[in-house]
Write a structure and sequence with these properties.
The structure is a single chain. The longest helix is centred in the last third of the chain and has 31 residues. The chain contains 14 helices and 17 strands. With 472 residues, the protein is α+β, with helices and mostly antiparallel strands. Helix 7 runs antiparallel to helix 8 and helix 11 runs parallel beside helix 13.
C-alpha cells in the first residue's frame, strides 16, 4: 500500500537525467567523478523525503556511505533550493576518533565536517560563509543500529559569526516499510501525507515574515557555479541547445586549433560530456590539453539567442566583475573567444540561405534583430579594452545563419520558433517567454470555443436542430 502513495524516484537525486540508470548507477557515476573508488563504499543509505502522489520537494537529503568495516566514512549532502537548483557536497569527515566518550560509551559514532558555502539557498544569506555538520551514525555500531537520525547543520558567515542552526532528528524508532502492515501504513499516510505539500508554502510564509516584519536584507540570486547543478531547461532553451551543439561541432571540426574541446551541456538529457576534435588533431593522441567548456545553467541559451555575435556574448560574461552572472565555465577563455571570432570565416555565406527561401518566420526573426535597440559591448580579452557599437544593422546572428543551413526542416522550425519567442518577449513581455506561452494558450482555448460554437450555429442553420456541447 505504501508503495502506491510514496515513492523514491532516481530522477530526483544526484545528476539530473532520465530515471533509467537507477540510484545505484547514478551514485557510482558521481563517486567516480569525485575520484572515489566504488568498492570503498559497499554499503550506502539514503535519508530523504519520498514523493507523495508524484510530488516531492527536498530541501536536503543525506547519503550515508559505509566502508568495508561498516564504519561511516563519508556522507553526501544533496541541497535543493526553491529555484530548482541543486548542490552536492561530498564530505569525508574530520580525522581522528570521532566517537563521543570512551571506548565503552554507548553513544553512536559522530561524523563531523566543515566546508565552504558556495550555493544560494536563502535570499536572506549571501553565497559566502561555511557550513559545519555534526551527524550521528544512525546505524552504529557496524550497521546494527536502530536508524535514529540526528544531524545538526550550522551556518557561519564569512567572518565566522553564527547565523543559523538547523537540526534533523528522529522523534521515535524507525520502521521498515517492507514489514509494515495495512493499518500501520494507513496510519503513517494519514499522519504524513501533507508534509511535502506544505514545505514550499512554509518557506514562502517564513520568507515573508523575515522580509516584511524583520526587514532583513535580500540577496538576489546569483547564477550557479560550475560545481552546482542548474535548474531544468525550458523547451525553448532545449531547442536552441540542439542547434548550438551542432554549430559547435561544425566550428571545432573546421577550426585551426589543435586542442580538443570537452563540451558539457546543462540539459539533463545531454548531461554527459562530449569531446570534440578538430580535423587537424589526432584523436588517438591524448597528450593535448583539453579545453573545458561547461554550460552551468540553461539561461546560457536564452541569452545566446539575443546576441548577433557569439564572441561578444562570451566576452561580456568572461569580463564581468564577478561570477554571480556567468552562465558557463571554460578553462581556456582566450582560446574559446578566438575560436568563435574565427567562426564567421568558417561558416558558409548567409546569402546561400536567404530569408525568402526559408519563409515568413525567418523574415520576422530578421525584423526583430534589425529593430532591437540594445547596444552590445565588444571586448578584447587580451587587451582588456571595451568599445560599444550598434549591431542593429546585422540581420542574422551566426547561429541564425547556421540554423538556416540545416537540412532538417524540424530543426530549423524549432530553432527559429524558440529564438523568435525570446526576442519578441523582450519587446512585449518584459523578457519572459513564459508570458507569451500563457497568452498563446489562452488564445488557443478561445479559438477552440469559437470554432465549436460556430459549427453548432452552422449545424442549426442546416438541420434546424441544436447540438448539445458539454462545457467540460
Amino acid at each position: 500500500m505504501g508503495g502506491f502513495w510514496f515513492s523514491v524516484n532516481a530522477d530526483d537525486y544526484l545528476e539530473r537525467g532520465s530515471n533509467s540508470p537507477g540510484l545505484q548507477e547514478k551514485l557510482y557515476s558521481y563517486l567516480q567523478a569525485q575520484g572515489e573508488a566504488i568498492d570503498d563504499y559497499p554499503y550506502v543509505y539514503l535519508v530523504t523525503a519520498p514523493r507523495f502522489l508524484g510530488y516531492s520537494f527536498n530541501p536536503v537529503s543525506f547519503w550515508y556511505l559505509y566502508d568495508r568495516r561498516k564504519d561511516l566514512s563519508a556522507m553526501i549532502l544533496e541541497v535543493n533550493n526553491t529555484f530548482d537548483e541543486r548542490r552536492l557536497y561530498f564530505l569525508k569527515g574530520s580525522h581522528g576518533d570521532t566517537k563521543d566518550g570512551n571506548a565503552t560509551d554507548p553513544l553512536p559514532r559522530k561524523f563531523k565536517d566543515t566546508w565552504a558555502k558556495d550555493f544560494h539557498v536563502s535570499p536572506f544569506n549571501s553565497r559566502k560563509g561555511s557550513y559545519v555538520l555534526n551527524a550521528y551514525d544512525p546505524f552504529s555500531p557496524s550497521l546494527s543500529g536502530t536508524g535514529m537520525i540526528d544531524n545538526n547543520i550550522t551556518l557561519k558567515s564569512s567572518k565566522s559569526y553564527l547565523k543559523l542552526v538547523a537540526r534533523v532528528f528522529s522523534t521515535e524508532a524507525s520502521s521498515d516499510p517492507a514489514t509494515l502492515g495495512y493499518w500501520t501504513s494507513l496510519r503513517f499516510i494519514a499522519a504524513w501525507w501533507w508534509v511535502g505539500f506544505v514545505t514550499f508554502p512554509r518557506i514562502v510564509k517564513e520568507a515573508g515574515e523575515l522580509f516584511f516584519r524583520r526587514k532583513l536584507h535580500v540577496w538576489y540570486r546569483p547564477e550557479v557555479l560550475k560545481d552546482t547543478i542548474g535548474r531544468r531547461p525550458t523547451n525553448d532553451e532545449v531547442n536552441i541547445e540542439l542547434t548550438f551543439r551542432s554549430f559547435l561541432t561544425y566550428v571545432i571540426k573546421n577550426s585551426k586549433i589543435e586542442q580538443p574541446l570537452c563540451y558539457i551541456s546543462s540539459i539533463p538529457s545531454f548531461s554527459a560530456s562530449e569531446t570534440l576534435y578538430p580535423e587537424s588533431a589526432d584523436s588517438s593522441n591524448p597528450s593535448k590539453e583539453v579545453i573545458d567548456f561547461k554550460i552551468t545553467t540553461p539561461l546560457f541559451f536564452a541569452r545566446l539567442a539575443r546576441y548577433s555575435h557569439i564572441s561578444e556574448f562570451l566576452s561580456n560574461e568572461i569580463l564581468t566583475d564577478d561570477d554571480k552572472d556567468r552562465t558557463f565555465y571554460t578553462s581556456h577563455p582566450r582560446v574559446l573567444l578566438q575560436l568563435f571570432k574565427d567562426s564567421s570565416n568558417i561558416l558558409r555565406p548567409s546569402s546561400e540561405h536567404s530569408p525568402l527561401s526559408n519563409g515568413l518566420r525567418w523574415r520576422f526573426l530578421q525584423w526583430l534583430r534589425t529593430n532591437r535597440s540594445q547596444k552590445v559591448v565588444q571586448s578584447d580579452v587580451n587587451k582588456q579594452q571595451h568599445t560599444k557599437s550598434d549591431i542593429r544593422h546585422l540581420s542574422f546572428s551566426e547561429l541564425d545563419s547556421f540554423a538556416m543551413s540545416l537540412e532538417s526542416p524540424s530543426g530549423k522550425a524549432q530553432y527559429v520558433g524558440a529564438t523568435t519567442k525570446i526576442l519578441l518577449s523582450d519587446i512585449v513581455a518584459f523578457g519572459y517567454p513564459e508570458i507569451l506561452d500563457a497568452v498563446n494558450y489562452v488564445l488557443k482555448v478561445l479559438a477552440s470555443h469559437v470554432v465549436v460554437y460556430g459549427m453548432k450555429d452552422i449545424w442549426y442553420m442546416i438541420t434546424g436542430e441544436w447540438i448539445i456541447v458539454p462545457l467540460a
